[in-house]
Specification:
There is one protein chain. The chain is mainly beta. 7% of the residues lie in helices and 42% in strands. The chain has three helices and 30 strands. The chain starts with a helix and ends with a strand.
Length: 366
């Protein structure tokens, strides 16, 4: 408490008022809280996972979640002895396991002729006690029991990187033909393409020596966008520090940028004709100057790639065809990192740096 008083005393009057207002306006999770806009409004349920389950299934950060065909939900985290958690749709934790991905960050689902597999991305960034470490990341293909099929390690081994280039991948996506796309979002900012067996094909993207409108600046997430049909599928890559998504052909040719100003978007999640994404921070001056300020929200983009709802954030407003910067409006999320879209339209939002809390459920309002 003394530290907080000293911190507030060091702020200007306006900043202190903003900080105090945020602390006082934190919603009571036991009350009905509605967030979102237009046809995408949700009731917040912070008690989707019943109290007491953490005793047997501890977590550190909730990074990403996918739902398999039988309804189970798999979530990757970075707890040293407990990286994969498996939930029922009602929030009951079925099991937890995994100690081989201490930097557990990305989780993608692949359906291969009716058999489901998971691609786990270990970023190589992990914590142990009060220390933090950077090692080489890797991508593992596993079955739903955790058995490893193969792994993709440092791209230097296939001539894609030079020895001094770091590899700290954050996410994968699998194309309709089985090709695997890996984004090196905490490393050298490239997209690496492999075939279905893990054989290297090509590298594209990057942050340096490319036109500014094409650069990948914190290439945090990736998805295959097949909303126009598999024959017209494209690669959608997050450029999180630039508050946007970049679209490429499957062969790496740049196509367009989808701006989401003010929003540090994580991975794009495509459901139906819409794109969903967690927002880890609001990139606005008045928020960024307050250390440890809870931030983040979620965004929903329609089939025209326009933001139609920002649950937890300000209402999307377009002026002259351009979206005005978004920011956190309600203290619901601590740092939105991923969105899992359920069949009925409900959302499960994983959070990073959220005081070791489980995902928040957003129940869609008809």
């Amino acid at each position: 408490m003394k530290a907080r008083r000293h911190f507030l005393a060091g702020l200007g009057t306006a900043a202190m008022a903003t900080w105090t207002q945020k602390l006082q306006s934190a919603p009571d999770p036991k009350k009905d809280v509605l967030i979102g806009h237009a046809s995408h409004r949700y009731k917040v349920n912070k008690e989707w996972v019943a109290a007491g389950q953490g005793r047997h299934h501890p977590i550190l950060n909730c990074h990403e979640m996918v739902q398999v065909r039988d309804g189970r939900l798999f979530m990757i985290g970075d707890h040293l002895q407990n990286q994969m958690l498996v939930f029922k749709p009602d929030g009951t934790i079925v099991e937890s396991w995994g100690s081989m991905w201490p930097g557990g960050h990305g989780l993608s689902l692949s359906d291969e002729n009716g058999e489901e597999f998971l691609f786990v991305t270990d970023s190589g960034l992990w914590k142990n006690g009060n220390g933090s470490y950077r090692q080489t990341g890797r991508v593992s293909k596993i079955d739903l029991t955790g058995k490893e099929i193969f792994s993709i390690s440092h791209p230097m081994s296939v001539g894609a990187y030079e020895p001094d280039m770091v590899f700290n991948p954050t996410e994968t996506a699998v194309a309709p033909n089985g090709d695997i796309y890996v984004v090196d979002g905490y490393g050298s900012q490239f997209v690496l393409r492999y075939d279905s067996h893990g054989k290297f094909i090509q590298r594209f993207g990057g942050k340096d020596d490319v036109p500014e409108e094409q650069r990948l600046n914190n290439a945090h997430g990736i998805a295959i966008d097949a909303r126009q049909g598999t024959e017209r599928a494209t690669v959608l890559v997050t450029s999180r520090a630039d508050n946007c998504f970049r679209r490429f052909t499957l062969e790496g040719g740049y196509l367009e940028t989808i701006p989401v100003p003010g929003a540090m978007v994580c991975r794009p999640v495509i459901s139906g004709q819409e794109i969903y994404a967690g927002v880890c921070w609001s990139k606005t001056p008045e928020i960024n100057k307050l250390p440890q300020n809870p931030s983040g929200f979620t965004v929903v983009l329609n089939h025209e790639n326009k933001v139609v709802s920002a649950p937890g954030g300000t209402e999307p407003v377009y002026e002259d065809g351009k979206l005005k910067p978004l920011k956190q409006a309600e203290r619901v999320f601590e740092h939105g990192h991923d969105v899992c879209v359920l069949e009925n339209g409900d959302l499960l939002v994983c959070q990073w740096n959220a005081f070791q809390t489980y995902p928040v459920k957003l129940e869609k309002v008809p």
